[in-house]
Amino acid sequence: MAGTPKKTNISRRGFLSSAVAGSAALVAGSNPLQAANPENMAPNVPDWSRYLGAGVAEQPYGMPSEFEKQVIRRNVPWLTASTESSVSFTPIHELDGIITPNGVCFERHHAGIAMVDPADHRLMINGLVDKPMMFTMEDLKRFPRVNKIFFLECAANSGMEWRGAQLNGCQFTQGMVHCVEYTGVPLKYILEEAGVKTNAKWLMPEGADAAAMNRSLPLEKALDDCLVAFKMNGEALRPEQGYPLRLVVPGWEGNLWIKWLRRIEVGDMPWQAREETSKYTDLMEDGTSRRFTWVMDAKSVITSPSPQAPITHKKGHTVISGLAWSGRGLIDYVDITLDGGKNWRRARIDGLRLPKALHRFYYEFDWDGSPLLLQSRAVDETGYVQPTKDELRTVRGTSSIYHNNGIQTWHVQENGQVENVEIS
Ligand code: CO
């Protein structure tokens, strides 16, 4: 029957749920209904109302409340051989609005976090240019700068879900995404300064980490909307986000957003074409692969309720909250379903609506306490409709890791607990 949850990969998910168990316990422990201490509640006067608190500058750089310590990045230890070439996930189930706080933006490193002294850091422009150039950080701050809010999504986000529902939490299934305000210089200003030769077509941006992480980027995109950014959300980039300088490639997959950016070589062909194996290609069922699939297509996910953010009340007023985004521009609208796709209702997008940025949506309803099959479906301004996972598999098979923007299903049980499932 339609609407009956069909769980796939049960055994693998059992293994995975133990990896996530620690976080689940923290979520339960932070539930105010369970943690409530009658001594602190009216008409009693809690200690925090009776004594002086800490003075100013107790913490010269402020930290979240100790009661928010569950709001952290998490990795999946068995996923990679080492943490230096690995990934941590944004706790999107704990956040609201569209801006990701700097301290919890997901990370992807290929050789660990480079600790770069900005005084010694340079950005070199070489290759097919009239004059090779070397910029200090101070030089870069003398160009006109702009402030732009963009999402950044790893091409491998949701990659572990190609073969079926696996990881029990949207932090792990969709958490390789973040969205911050960047301050930086349009890359075209810097390229204009060096004078790009007429036969130039490609750039190779390169990082100062031990992997010398590099990618091929079409010149056309660089001149369109790419930035060389030094600030995020008003403060310097965090080391794990490329301090002191990173490339911003709006709407395109995260591996192109080279961190610790030290060099941009200008050329006439993609560097990856010179290598035996291309990076970040999408392996198709017939053994061929898609290459240079850069744009992140429209995607959405309900972040609450979700496996790490269960419903903690019995029934009545309930808020569904989620995120939607598209590498092609604005999200036009988001629909949500409570019954696995039988009925769709329009969600309410709230707050800033910016192209190539996260959009926040809500849907408020009175829960009758019966099981739900929650899904969200985003449509972007080009008319592109977020596909189901099965629709994606029909076209692309199950061998790929990348570009899984399929519709996510959460099974809400009567007790409010939520599971990652797939339905057919
Ligand atoms: Co791709």
List descriptors.
single chain; 2 domains; binds cobalt (II) ion; disordered N terminus; Immunoglobulin-like; five-stranded mixed sheet; alpha+beta; six-stranded antiparallel sheet; 424 residues; Sulfite Oxidase, Chain A, domain 2
Describe the 3D structure.
The protein has 424 residues and is of the alpha+beta class. The protein has two domains: 122-291, Alpha-Beta Complex (Sulfite Oxidase, Chain A, domain 2); 295-423, Immunoglobulin-like, CATH 2.60.40. It has helices spanning 10-29, 32-35, 137-140, 170-173, 187-194, 219-225, 389-396; strands at 5-6, 86-88, 107-109, 122-127, 133-136, 146-153, 177-186, 202-207, 217-218, 227-232, 235-236, 246-248, 261-267, 282-283, 289-290, 299-304, 316-325, 331-337, 345-346, 348-350, 359-367, 372-380, 409-412, 418-423. The strands form six sheets. Strands 1-24-23-22-18-19 form a six-stranded antiparallel sheet, with no helix packed on it. It has a five-stranded mixed sheet with strand order 5-4-13-8-9. Strand 18 and strand 19 form a beta hairpin. It is globular. Mean pLDDT is 91; it is low at 1-32. Cobalt (II) ion binds at residues 155, 253, 280, 293-294, 402-403.
Could you tell me the strand content as a percent range?
25-35%
Strand order of the largest sheet: 1-24-23-22-18-19
Largest sheet: 6 strands, antiparallel
CATH architecture of the largest domain: Alpha-Beta Complex
First-to-last CA distance:
9 Å
Mean pLDDT: 91
**Number of H/I helices:** 7
